[in-house]
Design brief:
mainly alpha
């Protein structure tokens, strides 16, 4: 267990990068988002494009923060479940 935590700490594991890998639904949505992004980008003039790029950058940052928080929340929940299971197993 300690090796896993150490690997996470030093950034050698990237759970968010492998999350959803091979999930056809996620892959399809990512493809559609990318296609829509490029279609919209080609329709905008320079001023609109600058605004759109800023919006996309802000949305990307928001998504990254939400993914990070979800990871922390999941890790905390998993730790609490493990602790509860360990405490309950010691009581028996």
């Amino acid at each position: 267990m300690m090796n896993l935590i150490t690997e996470l700490w030093y950034g050698n594991l990237h759970p968010s990068k492998i999350s959803g890998t091979g999930n056809s639904e996620i892959n399809e949505v990512e493809r559609l988002v990318s296609k829509s992004y490029h279609n919209l980008e080609s329709l905008l003039d320079e001023k609109q494009l600058k605004f759109f790029e800023q919006y996309a950058e802000n949305m990307n940052e928001n998504l990254c923060l939400a993914e990070e928080q979800a990871f922390f929340d999941g890790f905390s929940l998993g730790t609490r479940l493990f602790a509860e299971a360990l405490i309950n197993s010691e009581k028996k």
